[in-house]
Amino acid sequence: MATRLLTQHDYGRRIGRAIALIAADPARNPGLEELAAAAAFSPYHFHRIYREITGETPAETLARERLSRAAGLLVRDGLPVALVAKRSGYGSAAAFTRAFRAAYGTPPAAYRDSGGIGAALPAPTSTPQEIGMFDIEIRHEPALRLAALAHRGPYAGMGTVFDRLMAWAVARRLVGPETRFLGLYHNDPATVPERELLSDACVTVPAGVEGSDGVRILDLPASRVAVLVFKGPYAELEQAYTWLYRDWLPASGEEPADQPPREDYLNDCRSLPPAEWMTAVMLPLRDRAAS
Prior knowledge:
The chain has nine helices and eight strands. Helix content is 41%, strand content 18%. The protein has helices at residues 2-24, 32-39, 43-54, 58-77, 81-87, 93-104, 108-114, 158-171, 238-252, and strands at residues 137-141, 144-152, 181-185, 198-204, 215-220, 223-231, 262-265, 278-285. The protein has an eight-stranded antiparallel beta sheet, with helices on one face. The relative contact order is 0.15. The protein is globular.
């Protein structure tokens, strides 16, 4: 039994190396031989092992990562479609447009010009009566034990960090119906250079689980949080943060706690189109008694 567990853990670590190779430069398309070599598996077996551990093929991982980063370049930077296509590894703007439309339901130029497909950001508000334009729930989150994989760099690169964490967790049979995947975001991407941004991809784990292979264990205390549920692509989540910090927080009478904001991913981005992705953006708050 111990030998079998060690083998499972080793498989997860090796598949994580292949995912890291994909994430290093999504504009590239590493071939089977290169990916298999990174994972130290025979090319005859690599694809099957990768699919069993990650739930998708390497090509699907690459396509999802490319389109997610492309959406960020469009909605955040407003770049020309041809330039985004090139930076995302597509051979032509036409091929990129077809792939983007199939995934996001709209052409990339229209997506860029409309500011995305998620909820539109309201104009700045000036009175407490106006802050209810988005639904906010204040609730108490239980203490959470998390396995966390750190990321330094653009938040748009978190997708494959979660893929690597998933491979680690699946190899240890830690993923089940009650498992939660969360992101901790330590910096403001509008003020901190992208290369210096710090974040953590996290998965809830039971007591007794130990970290390894770059995964560390974090214990989050029970928290009082303001929750905004955002529907749409992850590339558009910054507008939820803008509204929370610009409009809701100053008018709410609340004080933020000394914890980073977090995101709780409520459904599976691999099985749903980006327009259906649901994310609970959580802003930790100070307890009333401590205010």
